[in-house]
């Protein structure tokens, strides 16, 4: 029988972690003065605030452009709705006017039809239960 032995473990060298894109950007930002957390530097104190105010200004300008564009679109749609309302009213009036009995009789005369002089004859059928 063979004696028990320990397996020797070969230690691998730790793999170097490949730097990600974010790590590269973090290193670049840390070199800039406005990212620095050191409050003793004069530039560091004000550049952060200037960047923030500039960002707010850009947002304000973008918002005003968007509001103006929406306002113009609303005005265009209001004009379109007014035109459609007028067209609807005109068509409704024409339809009501054309469906009057006198108008229908005039159109029927042109086709050679005349209205009845006396009432139509009603034909009654006795119910099957009455027989």
UniProtKB/TrEMBL annotation:
Keyword Coiled coil: yes
InterPro entries: FtsL-like (IPR045755)
Keyword Coiled coil recorded: yes
Coiled coil residues, start to end: 67-94
Keywords assigned by UniProt, alphabetized: Coiled coil
Organism domain of life: Bacteria
Protein name in the entry: S-adenosyl-methyltransferase
Source organism of the structure: Flammeovirga pacifica
